[in-house]
Amino acid sequence: MAADLSARDVERVKFAFSIYDFEGNGTMDAYYIGDCLRALNLNPTLAVIEKVGGKEKRKEKMIKLDEFMPIFAQVKKDKDAGSFEDFMEVLKLYDKAENGTMMYAELEHILLSLGERLEKSELEPVLKECCPEEDEEGCIPYEPFLKRLLAFKI
Question: Cβ(16)–Cβ(36) under 8 Å?
């Protein structure tokens, strides 16, 4: 599966992996698989990270670069990761006036209760950074919110 990667992808993976090779011995703690994948501009869910071997605790398992390459290739190929267009379609469902806006409170509720739920304390800085000001009806334009959110690099 790693053979499907371009030379550029291989170099990017090597570089990202080296950042998480804290001891400089060619291994990465499996605890950091999700972080490393996100550093490579992928958006795996917690379930995907667990499925590919990510661990919830440090020092449970160490992996080598040749073990990580197929993980990267698999997650990169995954079609379940939503695109900008996918997220726009979902947010349009909450655009009652069909004018490119949705209720701020509804967005907050969605992010707190659907999918991989966030805690209020995790959500507040994201909304503060990504959301435009609410209008007098409590609505925000969702396209600028989504563009800012997807531009974030974790």
Answer: yes
pTM above 0.70, yes or no: no
DSSP, residue by residue, the chain: -GGGS-HHHHHHHHHHHHHH-TTSSSEEEGGGHHHHHHHTT----HHHHHHTT--SSTTS-EEEHHHHHHHHHHHHH-TTSPPHHHHHHHHHTT-TTSSSEEEHHHHHHHHHHSSS---HHHHHHHHHHHPPPP-TTSEEEHHHHHHHHHH---
Kindly report the length of the chain: 154
The 10s digit of each residue's pLDDT in 128-153 is 999 999 999 999 999 999 988 887 64
Q: Which residues pair with 63 in a beta bridge?
A: 28
Q: Which two tokens stand for residue 68?
A: 């990580």
